Every structure is written in structure tokens, then in C-alpha cells.
Structure prediction request, 113 residues.
Amino acid sequence: YYRHVNIKPADRIPVFVDCFWYDVWPFPNNQPPTYDGATENLAGSNEMRRICLNRHHEAINGAFLDWSVRKIGLKELWTLPWYNDFDTRGPWTKAGNVQSEDWPEWMRSFKDY
Prediction:
């Protein structure tokens, strides 16, 4: 995790986001929820599912390290630098060669990142 606030890109580092649990520890290989509204798995694995909620038309709201607030596309969640060595080009990103058919059906039409 980051040790100070003078970090770039501060406008991409999430500090606080919509989710259904009080903390999250996402990993680049965490899979998306299998269906819209899924809230299973509170046991400490695949924690991106705690954040990937269709609350605001294919997005959630988030506050960033520069104290800006904006919508975050659900597929964009896998491209944000959640911590220092988070792979923002991981398997669930365009840079990581994710394909449309890899996403659960309910997310396939969402904007890609």
C-alpha cells in the first residue's frame, strides 16, 4: 500500500468506493460476480466481488487519493492501482487480453477498459 499521498497517479488510486462490505483486498485475478447483485463470498477471496456492484448504471462511485470523486466503470475496477504492485494490466483488462465472452453475461455489454 502507499506510504504517503504525494503519489502519481493520485486521481486513479481508490481510497473509498461503493461496496457491500467495510473493507476490500482486491487482486488482479479476482473474478467478477457471476450474476448482477451477487453478494456471496465474504470469506476473504475474490474480494473484487465486494466492489463490483451495478449500483449506478454499470458503475460505482469512488473517491480517489487526490480527493476527487467520480463514477468508476465496473470493468474499470481491474485497471485501478489498488495498491503499489497491483497489476493494472491483469487478466481482466483489455491490456491483459480479456475477451468479451470471458465476462459474465450480465457484464458483457459494459464498457471495456
Notes: The chain has a mean pLDDT of 92. The chain has no helices and three strands.
